[in-house]
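>> received
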Amino acid sequence: MGVAIRRADRNDRELVVRVLDEAFQGDPVSGWVFPGEEHRRATHHRLMAAFADTVLAEGRIDLVEDGTACALWLPVPAAPVAEPAAPAGAADAAGDEAETLRQEVDPENGRVELIARLMAEAHPADRAHEYLWMIGVVPGHQGRGLGTALIRPVLERCDREGLPAYLEASSPRSVPLYERLGFAALDRTLDLPDGPRMWPMWREPRG
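>> returned
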C-alpha cells in the first residue's frame, strides 16, 4: 500500500512544526543544542519553526497526508565564481544569518548560532544540488518506510535532471538508510564541540 504524500503550504505550518518538534526531541543534535529536557521541550519548537519558515519560502516541504512525517528540501545553486573578497563576504552573510537565528530562537543560547555556522561552513558550495535539510517522522511511526517514501520521489527527479543531493545525518543509525538511497559519507565529519557527530553525505545523480 502506497504512502499518500502532498506538498505542504503555509496552512500546514503548525502541523509541520509539530511533526519536526516531536520527531527531533530525542535527536542527539537537538539534545546538544538544547541541553536539559525541560528547556528543550519549551524552546526546541522555535528552531523547527524557523526552519519551516525558511523552507516554505525558498524550497519545498513534502508531508505525509496523515501528518506523521515530513521532509524539508532546499534547492542550492552553485556558488558564483569568487572574486577576491567574495569568500569573506559569504562568511559574513552566513554569520549574520546564524546570529539572527539565535536571536529569534533562544537569544542566550550560543549553540543555536554555533551549529548554524558550522553547518554552513561544511556545506558544499561548488555545485548546484538539492539539500535535504531535515526529515522527521513522529515517534510511533518510525521504521515503517515513511522516510524512504518521502525521499525517493525527489531523488528520482534529481536523477532525471542530473542534480546531486546533500544532507547531514544526525545519528549513526540513519547513515545506512541514506546509503541505501545512494548517498555516501564525505571524507569529513562535523563534530560538535563536546557533543555528537554529524555525517555530511553526498549523492551523485544516477543515470
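>> The two ends are 28 Å apart (CA to CA).
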